[in-house]
Amino acid sequence: MSLLHVQQLSHRYRTGGLLRKRGWLQVLDGIDLQLQAGESIGLLGCSGSGKSTLARLLLGLETPSQGQVTFARQAVSQLRGEQARAFQRTVQLVFQDAPGAFNPQRSIGWSIAEPLRHLSDLSEAAQRLRAIELLEQMGLHAEHAERLPQQLSGGQLQRANIARALAISPKLVVLDEALSNLDRVLQLQLLQRLDTLRRDNGTAFLLISHDLSLVRHFCQRVVVLDAGRIVEDRAVEGELSFEHPVGRQLQAAVLPERPARRGAQVSRAFHRSH
């Protein structure tokens, strides 16, 4: 059974204003997509292809112009009251801008526990323990829970951002270019941790990116979006071969594997020496 089912999804924005002629900008056009529990899909596309708009529609942050998003057999746009709150507990979105996800005047641990305060019955002590557990799962330490956001590096802050998204054990996590500002070694380490979570807990992931190499490391399927339409949808098995020009363009931009391996070797050598 599909966890997420998208049927003929289309979306457009009104353009123009007082000094410009009004019109419509078609961003998505006839999207069909299914995502199973415990599955990870990579959503690829160039800038402006509609990837982020699709993410907002999937999570109910916007209402589609046409079509429907169904999550666990419920139409997302029709959820109200307790059903809407239950949906919020099962889906999470992680953006590229990690600093924007944190209150600069509150500790990292406080921010990670914030969803638990609103969406769980855990005691304050249990919330703190959960925040520390999540930080450690992302390769950080208990001491990071006491620090302010500005006291963490960019990579540490993004790991804490992902930990925050995992706080309420969601069924679906959407990563919207969430790894693009990180170095390759850290990207692969995080994906390995998330893949363990996917296999152990059945969490589904939608990885939105323009980097095919990340998708190949993490996803079972890859979907290519171009000008608001799905132009490729195929399994990630061995060497990928795309038919559409956009897929071939993204494939040509993949970094060679050797630098990634060399980076991992440097990282292991660093840890052995400390």
TrEMBL record:
Listed SUPFAM superfamilies: P-loop containing nucleoside triphosphate hydrolases (SSF52540)
Catalytic activity: Ni(2+)(out) + ATP + H2O = Ni(2+)(in) + ADP + phosphate + H(+)
GO MF term set: ATP binding
Sequence ranges assigned to domain ABC transporter in this UniProt record: 13-252
Keywords assigned by UniProt, alphabetized: ATP-binding, Cell inner membrane, Cell membrane, Ion transport, Membrane, Nickel, Nickel transport, Nucleotide-binding, Translocase, Transport
Matches recorded under PROSITE patterns: ABC_TRANSPORTER_1, ABC_TRANSPORTER_2
EC number: 7.2.2.11
Membrane topology designation: Peripheral membrane protein
Keyword flag tRNA processing: no
Keyword Transmembrane: no
Cellular compartment(s): Cell inner membrane
SMART domains per UniProt: AAA
Family annotation (InterPro entries): AAA+_ATPase, ABC_transp_ATP-bind, ABC_transporter-like_ATP-bd, ABC_transporter-like_CS, Nickel_NikE, P-loop_NTPase
Family: Belongs to the ABC transporter superfamily. Nickel importer (TC 3.A.1.5.3) family.
Protein function: Part of the ABC transporter complex NikABCDE involved in nickel import. Responsible for energy coupling to the transport system.
Subunit structure, as described in the record: The complex is composed of two ATP-binding proteins (NikD and NikE), two transmembrane proteins (NikB and NikC) and a solute-binding protein (NikA).
Name this polypeptide is given: Nickel import ATP-binding protein NikE
Source organism of this protein record: Pseudomonas machongensis
Gene name tied to this protein: nikE
